[in-house]
Amino acid sequence: MDIKSTSRATGKRRIRRGKTSRSPYSMSANRFWVTQGAAFNPIMFSSTLAPVLLNSGTTGTLSTSTALTPTISQFTEYSALSGLWSEVKLIACRVEFSPKTQTLNAATLQDSMYIGTRADVTAASSPSAPTGAQFVENLQNPKVISTYGVRPYMYYMSVPRDLDYSAISNDAPATPTPYAGSPGSVFVYATNLSTNSTNYFSCVLTAVWQLRMRV
Length: 215
Prior knowledge:
Elements: E1 2-5, E2 13-16, E3 25-28, E4 31-34, E5 43-48, E6 52-55, E7 62-64, H1 78-82, E8 85-99, E9 112-118, H2 133-137, E10 140-146, E11 153-156, E12 166-167, E13 185-190, E14 199-214
């Protein structure tokens, strides 16, 4: 509030009130003002899955389409969360690929491994595992790494920014909803590897969701 003198002779002063901005959440005249579209009681939550091992098969191929998905129901906190919140949407997801063949002998075969995101599937929809590098190279955010790496590689899943909320009990249904919930899966493919079921990577998936609407 600014106070400005209007006359030096009389000493009278006039009060000039400045403009005040209205907060999206403010009390004024016993009324609760809310910005249109403001979301109530949402929270951000993050969790990590137990490590997933990627092994080569008897034909020297490493391939997966459902082992690395951000479906919230597969995380240990799901039971408690579903008792408190009724809607969820995925915000971000990443997978850390830690190589496991550094200590193996030189006879272990190595090659390139292809990683990509497919948003129109879920683990429940049972997508077929990729059968060639081209099936992964044409996915979203494709990456190529070596199976003979030394340091962990962090892969960031491609997540749409404008996802809608879905029921927490059905965030990744058998009929995929790539526009809502926790859609998508990280696809992996490599070939020309050792044929004795060698463990090439240990993968740790971390996801972040937003939950809202108390049960």
